[in-house]
Amino acid sequence: MNTDPLHDHALQIWDAALAAVDSATLVRQAIHVNTQQVHVGSTTVALNAVERVIVVGAGKAAAGMARGVIQAFENSPLQSHITGWVNVPEDCLSELPQITTHPARRAQCNEPTVEGIHGTQQILDLTTSANPQDLCICLISGGGSALLPAPIAGITLDDKQQITQLLSSHGANIQQLNSVRKKLSDVKGGRLAARCSSRHFASLVISDVLGDPLDLIASGPTVMDTEPIEIAIAVLRHFLDDQQPVVQRCLTAIENHVPLATLPSTYSVDVIGNNRTAVDAAAQAATNLGYETTHTANIKLEGLAEHVGFELAECSRKMTSAGGKRAYISGGEPVVQLADASIRGHGGRNQQLVLAALARKLADTTAPQQCMQRQFIMSAGTDGEDGPTDAAGAFINSNVVKQFLASSLDLKSTMQRNDAYTFFDELQALIKTGPTHTNVCDLRIVLSE
Questions:
Q1: pLDDT tens string 253-264
Q2: Between helices 62-72 and 23-30, what is the axis angle to 10°?
Q3: Interatomic CA distance for residues 19 and 436, integer angstroms
């Protein structure tokens, strides 16, 4: 089915983007050790002033990032003085010397868990027991919010899970979610860094939030929280009924939260990879394949996945009308307004986006059998996980259109029920990569020739 050369080119472009944001590589590039000094991002410490290297962190990329730390210190005097703990999804575990990778949640379930609380306590024990001469390196990547749970006094883990589910199902975006989550945490909003006993603290971040707002990536466990509590309170009251007991408990706990303590004396936070890194690499790969390429990495939230899908369909139409080999690469992260649970199917934002693009392409043609000829559209999450599914995303081309036209699938109903996974699975048009050990939002590739 997938003998389409555009399909092959799209996968090459995708692979180039993922290689550019490989988590271990990004960390190796951010750490430099010589005979005199250790450089971690923008932090510099004298080599002979460091007793231990304590590595902590959380996220879908944390295992790869931890491997990068170990590789960066190879053949240095500190190689045998590394210890650490990182929380990862259970499908991102990795056997590493000296650093524990802890399964803090199951795959395709981006919620805080009891296992996550245990792992977070191990991380806090490491940082609070650090000596002043230790160098603490914190590794943060997408998914860290759910992987670093430490509920504040007055609420339970179940409360945090309910609030996350309620906000997500009511259409709260990542910024709104994190505004609330960091106020409900004893580790986020800079509290992890503030509890470190070392004088030297360096945080390396792979960003999964558009525009790289450091206080929102994984809810900012190493970034001073300067956002007033009124914002989190306003989010809760905007999306939810503040008479619900769980909402009342969270509102009370936020209002009573203890202010943040001071941060370590030598302290830095550096973004080492983001959506633009992937988009730029993808655009270069497309150019190398002979496409006239345009690209954009969005730095603001995009709205509904359906709207982005419509825009990509229109982009595809214009590219085809212009003629020649053309590519459009974009990055971002839209949202999905979930259908009622009683009818909701299985899918993710990238699959919903591509489904919308297909609907628009078919609506704009008088010859359905000719739709998407010499055209290709795909959208996928760079972490390899699109919503609660084992797919990274989906694609459409002329083969997929023909398969759909010969099937009994109902496109309109599928979109309304958020059941894109079932739809594209039947058409063999899902993109499945497994965990990529990185996470820089989504990548979209539109090709025509």
A1: 999 887 777 788
A2: 40
A3: 10
Written as six digits, the tokens of 65 are 């990032």
Tell me how far apart the alpha carbons of residues 345 and 142 are, in angstroms, rounded to a whole number.
25
pLDDT at site 1: 45
CA distance 41 to 32: 9
Count of beta carbons in the 10 Å neighbourhood of residue 303: 12
d(CA 60, CA 50): 28
Give me 63's structure tokens: 């295992």
SS3 of 22, please?
A: coil
To the nearest whole percent, how much of the chain has pLDDT over 90? 84
Q: Which long-range contacts (CB under 8 A, 24 or more apart) does 366-372 make?
A: 368/401, 368/405, 369/401, 369/402, 369/405, 370/398, 371/398, 371/401, 372/316, 372/396, 372/397, 372/398, 372/400, 372/401
With cut-offs at 50, 70 and 90, classify the pLDDT of residue 2: low
Kindly write down the DSSP assignment for every residue of 241-268, as one continuous string: -TTSHHHHHHHHHHHTPPPP-PPPSEEE
Q: Give per-residue pLDDT as tens, 208-254.
A: 999 999 988 888 899 988 888 999 999 999 999 989 999 999 999 99
According to CATH, where is 3.40.50.10180 located in the chain? Answer: 22-153+181-226+252-272
Q: What share of the chain is helix, strand, coil (3-state, %, to 5)?
A: 40, 20, 40
| Torsion-angle region of 138 (φ positive above 0: left; ψ -120 to 50: alpha; else: beta) | beta
Fold for domain 5-15+276-448? glycerate kinase, domain 1 (3.40.1480)
Query: What's the CATH architecture for 22-153+181-226+252-272?
Result: 3-Layer(aba) Sandwich (3.40)
Q: What is the pLDDT of residues 300-352, one digit of tens each?
A: 889 999 999 999 999 999 999 999 999 999 999 999 988 999 999 999 999 99
Which two tokens mark 448? 């025509």
Q: Are the beta carbons of 184 and 250 closer than 8 angstroms?
A: yes
Query: What is the C-alpha separation between 202 and 402, in angstroms, rounded?
Result: 53
The span from the CA of 297 to the CA of 258, in Å, is 37
